[in-house]
Specification:
- The chain is of the alpha/beta class.
- It folds into 2 domains: 354 residues, Peptidase S8/S53 domain (Rossmann fold); 124 residues, no CATH class.
- The chain has 16 helices and 14 strands.
- Helix 14 packs antiparallel against helix 15.
- The longest helix has 20 residues.
């Protein structure tokens, strides 16, 4: 290895370096590619390709080029409005839309024990004013080299704890803290250079320092620009985060979909989230903005975000002010809310992998109308409104994040089945419709907590259930068995007569189906996580099967009816 090569922050086994050499033949496999963004956008007479810099700033902050190409001023807590000012929602309203109770308390582990705080890194171009945050780790602010040649991410100074208005990254961190109050926050500031391909290199270095150096469980990148591209060294870092981050379970990278004006399309507004965009890569979770009751987020009928097959989820993007910090809206806010949701999920079940977390987020998301007013005019108002058979929509992804539902599903396989089989919304729901759909899962959790002091089997189930989540997520046969029960019980509770036949006259189908779930699970014990107590699980299953075989079927039906209180007001 040439002595002139400078180590680049890396994750996993792939080691990256920066070389000052001008001889491409001497460069390592992954290197900063000046031409990576050369063909993005459309050519303009006398300007070349829109969004491509003619100079590369590698040793200093981005400086304005002659001709009025200066970066915009820092965001303020009072965002400029187009037309009539938008109403602001309160933080309390925002949290209630996610299913969280007030006051919002930290999440607890699936076995009832508290876990170590989840670490959330925020990468942004302005992290000043961080003194307003509760859980920030100041050490993270000093992990970027200051004023060193060929060291990334480039930095001129450490962000100040106090400034006139908190930076965008601090407001995003405040949104995460609002959802997950006990998180530890790391702030990683990179230079403002949105129109430069070298910005992707700063982003790659910040990701590596956050995940490998600081030990981030989750990384929030609530910014986007179509001119970045995804050069090979950034892809290598993203792969490394997904494969090696969080002890091999995969660091969770949450990003926003970005705004349509960042596409820099000379032919007019384009809402497309390009497949080669950083925010569309398979190792990140792109989040769109929606209204509180559904609908792709628009401001006076004008959409702000981008759409496409990469959009994974949506979350409320309504304008909200976080006290003593600042205001946020659109897909930046939505991404921060999803990052906070994942933090609560990991506090509930730290052993979940990146793939399992994504499965739970998708299966518990709430499908809502894609447009708040389908008849209203506006860009893409009449397009991309259908949901495919896999439950995906270009505008809203797999649906609006359900923070409470995702945490319940991360803790208990029965809650997962109840939430994964709930009804989709084809029309604007009543304000309490989503809450009613959660009632059975909440009731099951409450039933277990109450019954633990009276039943040894329930007490042992509470200590074992978290180990079953990865098995349910990876076994279609077990999903089929437990989903049948969830669907049947919901229909039975909503539409069956209140009077039950006496013991001995029931067909016993429900009892047989419960037994089938346990038998399928027994055949999957070899697929348990390595840390699971297989012998204890096997003993518990044996006792449950023996109890079911000797219990009258109607007693089983009564037990499930009491344990799963589906609301009679739940809409069809």
């Amino acid at each position: 290895m040439p002595a002139s090569w400078v180590p680049f922050p890396s994750v996993g086994e792939q080691r990256l370096y920066v070389s000052p050499s001008v001889d491409e033949g001497a460069l390592p496999a992954y290197f900063i590619q000046p031409l990576v963004a050369q063909r993005r956008g459309h050519p303009a007479r006398g300007l070349g390709y829109i969004g491509v810099d003619s100079r590369v700033w590698a040793s200093q902050r981005y400086l304005p080029l002659p001709g009025g190409n200066a970066p915009p001023p820092p965001a303020t807590t009072e965002q400029p409005e187009l037309g009539e000012p938008r109403p602001r929602i309160t933080v309390e309203t925002l949290l209630r839309s996610l299913g969280l109770a007030l006051p919002n308390r930290p999440a607890c582990g699936w076995d009832g024990h508290p876990r170590a705080p989840v670490r959330v890194a925020v990468i942004d171009t302005d992290c000043g004013g961080w003194g307003a945050l509760r859980g920030v780790e100041e050490a993270s602010l000093h992990m970027s080299p200051v004023g060193q040649w060929l060291q990334f991410p480039r930095s001129q100074q450490v962000p100040e704890p106090r400034q006139g208005m908190a930076g965008h990254g601090v407001v995003m961190a405040a949104a995460v803290e609002a959802v997950a109050p006990d998180v530890r926050v790391g702030l990683f500031e990179i230079p403002f250079a949105h129109a430069s391909h070298v910005h992707a290199t700063d982003l790659a270095a910040a990701l590596a320092r956050a995940v490998e150096g600081w030990g981030a469980d989750i990384v929030l990148v609530a910014m986007a620009h179509a001119c970045w591209g995804t050069p090979s060294h950034l892809r290598a870092i993203l792969r490394g985060c997904a494969r090696s981050g969080r002890g091999g379970k995969g660091a969770v990278i949450v990003c926003c979909t970005g705004r349509i004006d960042q596409n820099r399309d000379l032919h007019g507004d384009s809402t497309a989230l390009a497949s080669d965009d950083f925010n569309a890569q398979p190792w990140v979770i792109p989040v769109a903005a929606c209204g509180l009751t559904g609908g792709w987020y628009r401001v006076h009928r004008h959409p702000l975000g981008r759409i496409g097959p990469s959009v994974e989820l949506c979350a409320p993007g309504e304008l909200v002010t976080f006290p003593s910090v600042g205001a946020a809206d659109d897909s930046s806010l939505a991404a921060a809310l999803v990052a906070g949701t994942v933090a609560r999920m990991l506090a509930t079940h730290p052993g979940l992998s990146l793939i399992e977390l994504r499965q739970l987020l998708r299966s518990t998301a709430v499908q809502l109308p894609t447009e708040e007013d389908a008849a209203a005019p506006g860009l893409e108002a009449g397009h991309f409104n259908a949901w495919d058979r896999a439950g995906h929509n270009f505008k809203l992804g797999h649906g609006r994040v359900d923070t409470l539902g995702a945490c319940l599903a991360a803790a208990d396989p029965v809650c997962y089945a109840l939430l994964a089989t709930r009804h989709s919304g084809s029309a604007p729901p009543a304000p309490t419709a989503t809450e009613l759909e959660r009632e059975a899962a909440r009731g099951w959790e409450s039933f277990l907590r109450r019954g633990a002091s009276r039943s040894d089997l329930i007490l042992r189930y509470l200590a074992l259930r978290g180990y079953l989540i990865p098995v349910v997520l990876s076994a279609p046969a077990l999903q089929d068995a437990i989903f049948w029960l969830a669907r049947h019980l919901r229909a039975l509770r909503l539409y069956a007569p209140d009077q039950r036949p006496d013991d001995g006259t029931d067909s016993g189908a429900l009892s047989d189906r419960c037994l089938h779930v346990l038998e399928v699970l027994s055949g999957l014990l070899d697929h348990l996580p390595a840390e699971a107590p297989a012998k204890e699980l096997s003993r518990w299953l044996h006792e449950m099967i023996r109890l079911l075989a000797t219990s009258p079927s109607q007693s089983v039906a009564r037990f499930l009816t009491e344990a799963l209180p589906f609301s009679l007001s739940t809409p069809d």
